[in-house]
Amino acid sequence: MVFGVDHLGPFLLALLLMDKLKANPSRVINVSSYLAYAYAPPEGITFDNLDGRKGYNTWTAYGVAKLANILHAQELQRRFGAAGADVTCVALSPGTINTNIARELNFKILVDQFKTAYHWTNVIYEIFHLKTVDEGASTTIYCAVAPNIIKGEYYAFNDIETKIRHQQVGNVELAQKLWEVSEAMVGEKP
Prior knowledge:
Elements: H1 2-23, E1 26-31, H2 35-39, H3 58-82, E2 87-92, H4 107-116, H5 120-128, H6 133-145, E3 154-156, E4 159-160, H7 172-186
Parallel strand pairs: 1-2, 2-3
Antiparallel strand pairs: 3-4
Helix pairs in contact: 1-3, 3-7
């Protein structure tokens, strides 16, 4: 369900809108998370376990889905670019926003969160650097309206993120495979 909601939903929406997006200068913005770096395994997308039947961990599933958001934006940009379309596709991390979403966290969940993390220092950083809602919205707004956005990039703090990015970001082969698997899962082709 995590992969479906966080990746396949936006993937299908972009697929269904491709012709409309190509018709006019457009932007596609995928909201990802720093947690892609913290929780997706080093190989990136675990294609043989997207449904969690071989083992499920909430944090890993979320990290994989959020890495998929970044790879999707990059592959979507590659495809629009190859078609000569004036479409800008990016992904971004808004950071950890101080809302009531974590109200159900307890000690057991926090222990699991740290045990699962590939980069737990990032998790600690995020916990102690919560953003206000306005600060969290800033990068999304920036990517939506700034004239100097670089197509296919991954943003955070209103700039290209270079420090906290998963090692598979930019892996063209992985992004292409993710596209093919996602097409098969949603039953649509552009």
